[in-house]
Each structure stands twice: as structure tokens, then as C-alpha cells.
Amino acid sequence: MVHTSLDVVDEKISAMGKALVDQRELYLGLLYPTEDYKVYGYVTNSKVKFVMVVDSSNTALRDNEIRSMFRKLHNSYTDVMCNPFYNPGDRIQSRAFDSTVTSMMIQVC
Amino acid sequence: MEAAAGGGCGSGPPLLLSEGEQQCYSELFARCAAAGAAGGGPGSGPPEAARAVPSAATAAAGPVADLFRASQLPAETLHQITELCGAKRVGYFGPTQFYIALKLIAAAQSGLPVRIESIKCELPLPRFLMSKTDAEIRFGNPTELHGTKVQIPYLITEKNTFKRMDDEDKQQETQSPTMSPLASPPSSPPHYQRVPLSHAYGKLRSNTEQMHPAPYEARQPLVQPEGPSSGAPGTKPPRHQASLIRSFSVEREPQDNNSNYPDEPWRITEEQREYYVNQFRSLQPDPSSFISGSVAKNFFTKSKLSIPELSYIWELSDADCDGALTLPEFCAAFHLIVARKNGYPLPEGLPPTLQTEYLQAAFPKPKRECALFDSYSESMPANQQPRDLNRMEKLSVKDMADFPVPTQDVTSDDKQGLKSTADEALPKDVSEDPATSKDSNSLKARPRSRSYSSTSIEEAMKRGEDPPTPPPRPQKTHSRASSLDLNKVFQPSVPATKSGLLPPPPALPPRPCPSQSEQAPEAEIHPQLNRAPSQAAESSPAKKDIPYSQPPSKPIRRKFRPENPATENQDTSTTVGGPASAATVKPHAAVQKQSSKQKKAIQTAIRKNKEANAVLARLNSELQQQLKEVHQERIALENQLEQLRPVTVL
């Protein structure tokens, strides 16, 4: 399902085109018949995509919440990138990053 | 004394103990002996009051075994040590055997093979992990001791140790529970919590050890009395661990400065700080600027830690997450790497002693004051830290404050007092070790076994170290007066040259007089012969040259003279023409007159030449001297460049 959402994200990005770089891209709507969940996409300036999958059974998160979550995620990610020992593309093993993500998820739940 | 006693026994190889080691070992021995109910009387030797006179007692096997186990060495190593030290041979642990065993333990903990030869090296004190924070007790300040505590009239050289003990005492009172288990085997000296890092990193230990033993020993007596009292639990072990961690930090640096918080592995000692600063400078000449991520990555990769670990260390130390390391951040990262190399698990969060503010506060102040100040400020932020970190911080506060388990009870006064005293004490052995053994809790009994990889990092560090510490520049003595080095250099060669009687005269400038040109070629030959003249000798050889060259010139002159007269004769003869007889007579007379005149002229010319020679020779010698100095500088610079190159290119 994530791969599908990635395709959708790519589609969106290519649709953006031009010089328009919209950092926030909330994509709602990938709802499978059996699983209802929402996938949010977020693209950074460096074309790094964050995909967030939220279970719809949860009270729908407000748009702002999603945005703030993505912002925090982006900040954590840049902190991780600062580490010279981190190779882009590797699995992120930063504890701070993990803790941030976990706290966010807990917050939502 | 102990050394004498130890060395005196001849049962084993000669045991050379440093003063600090003697104290430590005697203390340990005393404890073992006391525990073993041998009950040596209070040691009268060192003012530190070694408990018992080791030489008169034997350590009971039980306490000794506990002690050895506390060293956290594998069982077979302990067996080896026991065998080597001769205890099995003689059947008991006499002072000699005990000392040898302790030394072997230190060697094993440093990663050295357990052999008799190992004890010949300068080793850090062996580390023993004690749940009880003997270390804290170690610095027993008698006055501080509460009634229950023991008296231990250890003379703590450092006032701060006294202070520390005060705190410790108080803390001990509050918590003694952990002490109790330790109390039972008093032989287990918790104070030696040093991580034998120093050994791996360069034995500055010898200096520190001497300091440390005293406090350690002081602690010991305290431990014993402390044991029975049971009080606060828990905190002691963590404190212990913290002390372990500290001791690690103590060992870190091969400088002679011992700031010591042996129990606080996360505290950077002065020597370590200097080392880190030097390393920083090697990567980035401006201490107030930062090291870029790639440079730092290359540098830290040399430590051969795994990338995830390095990544984690970076994450911890780069507080502002800017991808670059300022000096405090760099020191923190370096310290964490060192800790990791020595077996300490990385902390969950950046320890307070390694935080940027803390380190920054420490940096401007030179040495101890900084550390003291840091410990103080550290204790403040420590409050927010998790318990373990708190414990560690407490340790950092010179162990004293840390004792009260509940975070920072440590009265700021104590800390302050500690700090001020610690200032003086820092250089001496701040025996932090005894104090905080919080390490045990927070760090969970780190394996003491030294990893051999530590030696590799030591080498890497040393390699890195070499560049930043270039050899002292040669004296830039461009003064005319010959430099000492040159003198020394020249003096040996002077006799040689003199004996050779072929002093290499410096290349003399062309002689002003044509007649002197005769001498010039002669003189020039000599310089070519020997280009490295001793300047001091040059003047004399030059002078010798003068007479030497004079004779050759003389023959030349003489040749000239005969030639001149001959030419003159010819001239006169040709000019005369006329009556042959008259011509012949005149030429003869004329020749004779001319020859005499020529002789005088030549002699005056010779004198002038000699003077000119002397002056020129002196000038030449001075110039040669300057040339040598410049050469030396150049060589030094080239060396520096070579050394710096591998560090930066990597």
C-alpha cells in the first residue's frame, strides 16, 4: 500500500511541475476497500518524501495536526542528515529521530 | 616501604611500585588482611595511614578472591594471576604476592598479557568494581567523618578530597546499603575504578596513580566502617559506576595533568581536554570555529568504531545539529568515542559533563578551575536528568555531591567547597574513584576487560597527536653568538678538525689583492672538502687555514718572486739591453733590490691577507651558523608538514 501511495505521490509531484514547490502536500484518499486508512504525503525541498499512513478508525486528524506532524518529522530528518556518518538512503538509526517519531505517534493515539 | 617489602621478598620478580601504587596496594592489602582477620594494626608508615602494615600480614584468601573478582577479569585470567604472583606457590597471599597480583590485574585490565614482565611496566591502578562506593569513602576526611564512619586519618593531599569526603561521608550516611555488601568483603577496594585507559592511551597514569592511591586508600578505611551501617541503597552502586566512568576519563589522556574524577567516565579531565583541544587544532586551526562534518567524520572514523556507533555519538555530541562540531562538541564526541573504545556503553543522552555549556564554561578557564566550575554547573542541570545521569553527574561533582541518591541534594556549598579545593587538588590525585561508584548501577557493570582495540585507537590518536604537537622548534637564535646546539655540534668537531689540521675553511670571498688570489684557490679547496664546519671551530680552523694557506701561498709567492725577479730580470735585461756586463750587473743588483722590496711588500701583503682572512673566516662562520639554523627550521617544518598531511588528507 505504501508503494501505491508512492506512485501517487510521484504523480502529484510531476503534476506540480514548474517552479512551484509546495512543501505541504496532503493527500487524502487512498482508501482501500478492506482497509480504511489515509495516506498523507509530504515532500521536502530535496524531494525526500514522507508518507504517513493513518488508520481511519482513529478520529480523523485535522489537517493542521498532520501538517505539524510533518513539520516535526522534517525537522528530525534534517537533524539526522546533519550527521556526517549518515548516508542518505540508509535506514535511519538515529535515536532522537526515533523518539520524535514515536512521541508523535503516541500523541496521535 | 611497601615497595621495599614487596621487593624484598624475592619470591617473585622484582616489583617496582610507584609511590601511588604502593599506597594503593598497601591499602588493599590492609583491607584484605583486615578482612581476613589478620588485622594488621593501623599503618603508621604513610600519613595516609595505611591500615595495616602489610609486610607483617597476609591477606586472607577470601577477601583477596573477592577483590580479584571485583576486578572483573575473566576467571582464567585471575587464575593466571594467582599463579604468577606466587600465591599458590607459597600458599598464601603475602605482601609480595598480593602486590604482584594487583599489578597483574592492572596489566590485565589494561589489556596487557598476564605475564611477569607486565608488572615491570608502569601501569594504572587495577580497577575493582565494587557495589559499595568505597571510593567515596576513600577520601575519608577524618573530621568529616561522622561518628559512625571511620576515622581514617588519611592525609589527603588535596583539600578537595577532604571536601569530597565530607560529602561522601554525608552521603554515605544516607545510603549505606550498598556499602553493606561491600563492607563484608572489605578487601574489595572499589576505589580503583580506573579504567586502564591511560595505559592504552599513554601512560600518564603513572602520574595520576600516585595521586590516586592516596585518596583511594583514604577511602578504604571509610569503607569498612561504612559497611556495617546500612542505609541508602541503590545509590551506591550507581555511584560506583559513575566513579568507574570517571576513572576512565582520568585515564584518558597521556598528559601529566591529573584532574581526576576517576569515577566519572563522562567527565573530561584536564589532560584529556588538552589532548582533545590539540586534536581539534590539528583539524581546525581556529579553536573558536568548527570542524565540518566531513572532516570530523574522517577523523572519527579512524577510531574504528562502527558507523552506527559513530553516528550515534555524533548525534549525542552535536547539540545544535548543525553538522559541524565546535570545540566543546568535538571534545564531547571525542570523549564519547574514547569511552566507547574502552568498553563503556554509550549513554542514552549526553551526560551533563559533556554538554556544550558545561564544556564551554570549562574551556576558557585553564584547567582545574574549569573543571570545578563545571562540576558545579553540571550539578544544576543534572536535576533534570534521569536518575542514572544524575548519579553520574553527581560523580562528576567530584563525587562528593553525588552521594545523596536523590539527585542533587548535594549542597551547593559542598560543591563549591569541593571546587575550590578541587582546584588545588586537581593536579594531585583527586581520588574521585573512591567516591562514586554509581557507575555500577547506571552503567551496569561494564566489562573491565580492556579491549585491544583501545590500543589501536591510541595509536590512531597518537598518530593524530603527533601532528598537532610538532616538535619544539629549533632555537631561532640568529644572534651572532653561537647557539648552544651549534656549540655542542661544533665542539666535538673542533677537536676533529683540529686534529685533522685540515680545517675546511669556508668559502672565502675573492681576495681583494691579486696576490691573495693565490690563497683563495687554496682556501676554497678546503671548503669544498668539508661543508659542515663547526662554526666555533671555524675560526680556529680558519686561522689555521691562514697559516696553512700562507705556506702554500708562500711557495707561490716565492714562485712569483723568482718569477718576478725573473721577469724583472727579463725586463731589466731586455730594457737594459746595452752592455751585457752592465746589464748583467744591473739586473742583478736591481733584482736583488727588487726582491727585497718584493719581500717586504709580500710580507705586508701577507699580514693584510691574514687579517682579512680572519675577518672573513669569522663572517663566514657566522653565516654558516645562520644557515644551519635555517636548515634546521626548514627540516622541522617539513616534518610538521609530513605529520600533518596524513591527518588532513584522510
UniProtKB/TrEMBL annotation, chain A:
It is found in: Cytoplasm, Perinuclear region. GO terms for biological process: endoplasmic reticulum to Golgi vesicle-mediated transport. Keywords: ER-Golgi transport, Transport. GO terms for cellular component: perinuclear region of cytoplasm. InterPro entries: Longin-like_dom_sf, Sedlin, TRAPPC2L. It comes from the Eukaryota. Pfam families: Sedlin_N (PF04628). Belongs to the TRAPP small subunits family. Sedlin subfamily. This is Trafficking protein particle complex subunit 2-like protein. It comes from Puma concolor. The lineage of its organism: Eukaryota, Metazoa, Chordata, Craniata, Vertebrata. The gene is TRAPPC2L.
Automatic annotation (TrEMBL), chain B:
GO terms for cellular component: cytoplasm; plasma membrane. Keywords: Calcium, Coiled coil, Metal-binding. InterPro entries: EF-hand-dom_pair, EF_Hand_1_Ca_BS, EF_hand_dom, EH_dom. Residues 502-513 have a biased composition (Pro residues). GO terms for molecular function: calcium ion binding. The keyword Ligase does not apply. Residues 602-643 form a coiled coil. Residues 412-431 have a biased composition (Basic and acidic residues). Residues 160-195, 220-240, 401-598 are annotated as: Disordered. Residues 305-340 form the EF-hand domain. Residues 566-576 have a biased composition (Polar residues). PROSITE patterns: EF_HAND_1, EF_HAND_2, EH. Gene3D superfamilies: EF-hand (1.10.238.10). The keyword DNA damage does not apply. One of its GO terms (biological process) is endocytosis. It holds the Pfam family EH. Residues 21-124, 272-354 form the EH domain. Residues 589-598 have a biased composition (Low complexity). PANTHER family: EH DOMAIN, RALBP1-ASSOCIATED EPS DOMAIN-CONTAINING PROTEIN 2. This is RalBP1-associated Eps domain-containing protein 2. The lineage of its organism: Eukaryota, Metazoa, Chordata, Craniata, Vertebrata. The gene is REPS2.
